[in-house]
Write a structure and sequence with these properties.
Blueprint: H1 11-33, H2 39-46, E1 61-64, H3 70-77, H4 82-87, E2 91-93, E3 99-101, E4 106-112, E5 118-124, E6 130-132, H5 153-157, E7 161-165, H6 168-178, E8 185-189, H7 197-206, E9 211-217, H8 220-233, E10 239-245, H9 256-271, E11 281-285, E12 288-294
Parallel strand pairs: 7-8, 7-9, 9-10, 10-12
Antiparallel strand pairs: 1-4, 2-3, 4-5, 5-6, 11-12
């Protein structure tokens, strides 16, 4: 079946795909809040984001249970048929021909398109590894969807500085720890892949701030992703600052406020538009700066 042919689907069909993803996000969220297994809460606590378990949390992070047809059954009861379930990427066909859940026993994070419609999910395994899990669909292309924008839209529109990190739980941790309104930070995760040209443009569409910060981990593959993201962001943001940091959860320790203080210093430096580049900064490309300081969480 060709699941990427948008031209073959009516506007009403596309709307139904968005609705299916929206309901899936609600189902997954409910499953997390009442999860019978312990590991999702343990991962969130290890990452310093146990607050996500609060029903009032803005972060639409859920849990896909290992039940086989939990989501499919809920969507069928809501009136969604086999074709929509498969086209949405939420379901797959088992060896025996049954339509079953695609996502099982993992934390899931909602990904949104440019109009902020839910179109996909990013998965987080028991060991904290993150990866995109939704295939290409008529409403989703991986390079054109982003995590974290809708949850933090008020902060973005209030002038908060976008901070690009490697992991969605780090992005949530940054927002949870800052809570400083228009002077705060918006954590935007790469989710295992560099920010694309389309994603950078999407972020700029909703960000009032002219600046962005990219956290560059010590681990080689993650640092390469961050650098590629910074180059794409530099085409839309007036200045992009690179900050190096050790790999691993950024805020899951008692010194998280020290990290925020250092990040706040970097943001104030960005606001000094008329100042020359200060000692320790090196121009790497147009609008792109690096910083030699290593931040210890």
């Amino acid at each position: 079946m060709n699941r990427s042919g948008v031209g073959r689907i009516s506007p009403d069909g596309l709307r139904r795909l968005h609705e299916a993803n929206a309901i899936a996000a609600i189902v997954f969220r409910q499953e997390l809040l009442r999860a019978a297994v312990a590991w999702p809460a343990t991962v969130l606590e290890d990452w310093g984001v146990r607050e996500i378990l609060n029903p009032e949390s803005v972060w639409q992070i859920g849990y896909a249970p290992d039940g086989g047809t939990t989501l499919v059954d809920r969507l069928r009861k809501a009136g969604f048929g086999r074709e929509t379930l498969l086209l949405s990427g939420l379901a797959d066909i088992a060896d025996d021909g049954r339509v079953v859940d695609r996502y099982r026993d993992q934390l899931v994070v909602v990904s949104y398109d440019r109009r902020l419609d839910p179109v996909a999910f990013v998965g987080i395994d028991r060991d904290g590894q993150v990866r995109p899990i939704t295939p290409a669909t008529p409403v989703h292309r991986q390079s054109e969807a982003l995590v974290g924008v809708l949850e933090q839209i008020d902060l973005l529109e209030g002038g908060a500085t976008p901070v690009i990190l490697d992991h969605p739980l780090d992005a949530a941790a940054l927002e949870i720890a800052s809570h400083t309104g228009s002077e705060g930070y918006v954590g935007i995760p790469q989710c295992g892949l560099p920010i694309s040209r389309a994603q950078a443009s999407m972020l700029r569409q909703y960000a009032v701030s002219d600046w962005a910060i990219v956290i560059v981990p010590a681990e080689l593959a993650a640092s390469q992703r961050a650098l590629r993201s910074a180059v794409e962001l530099a085409a839309d943001f007036e200045r992009v600052r690179l900050i190096t940091s050790p790999s691993g959860p950024l805020l899951a320790n008692p010194e998280q406020l020290d990290f925020l203080a250092d990040l706040s210093f970097e943001t104030r430096e960005l606001d000094r538009q008329d100042s020359p580049v200060h000692d320790g900064d090196a121009e790497t490309t147009s609008g792109l700066e690096s910083d030699d300081q290593t931040l210890s969480p």
